[in-house]
Amino acid sequence: MLLLGSVDRRALIRLLDGYGLALRPVPEAEPIPGSYWGESEAGLLGNSLYARVDTPLHSVLHEAAHYICMTPGRRNRLNRDAGGDDAEESAVCYLQILMGDALAGIARQQMYQDMDRWGYSFRLGAACAWFEHDAADARSWLLQRGLIDAGQRLTGALRG
């Protein structure tokens, strides 16, 4: 599993900064503020994303994608639980994969494997199969809200 401590943190910080989201490092073995799942999983409080060096990158990107995809009202009162419906959750999963693509040296296949290992569940049984063959609804959701463009590139926008 790809951990935060093994990626180019400066590139990740630049990506998150573009969305007004600050990466807040947490010391090793300390509890992660705002973590929905606990353990080493990333946490969200307001516009801060908390993570340790042992936090999986897919968790950091998933929580960042929640922040990007949520309505402004939810973003303003964000405290641990991103909320949202099933359609938004699918869009979050899709967006986290695209965000991984935006980071140099992060192979999409690694993101798929880490998502599968963590336990994300998809109708086709695996993240790769879902992304490539069953995610048209998630792509459409992101496109309609201006979070990706027609070429499936990140726009840098937050959901309005």
Percentage of residues in strands = 5-15%
Assembly status: single chain
Helix content: 40-55%
Quickly count the helices: 7
Low-confidence stretches: none
Number of domains: 2
The rounded Rg comes to 14 Å
Q: Which class best fits the helix and strand makeup? A: mainly alpha
Q: Roughly how many Å apart are the termini? A: 33 Å
Q: What value does the average pLDDT take?
A: 95
In the sheet with the most strands, the strands line up as: 1-3-2
Helix-strand topology string: HEEEHHHHHH
Shape: globular
Largest sheet: 3 strands, mixed
The number of E-state strands comes to: 3
Short description:
The chain has helices spanning 9-17, 57-69, 72-76, 86-101, 108-118, 127-133, 136-144; strands spanning 22-25, 43-45, 48-51. It is mainly α and 160 residues long. It has two domains: 4-76, no CATH class; 86-144, no CATH class.
Structural summary, described in words:
The chain is mainly α. It folds into two domains: 4-76, no CATH class; 86-144, no CATH class. It has seven helices and three strands, in the order αβββαααααα. Helix 2 (57-69) packs across helix 4 and helix 4 (86-101) crosses helix 7 (136-144). It is globular, with a radius of gyration of 14 Å. It starts with 8 loop residues before the first helix and ends in a 16-residue tail after the last helix. The mean pLDDT is 95.
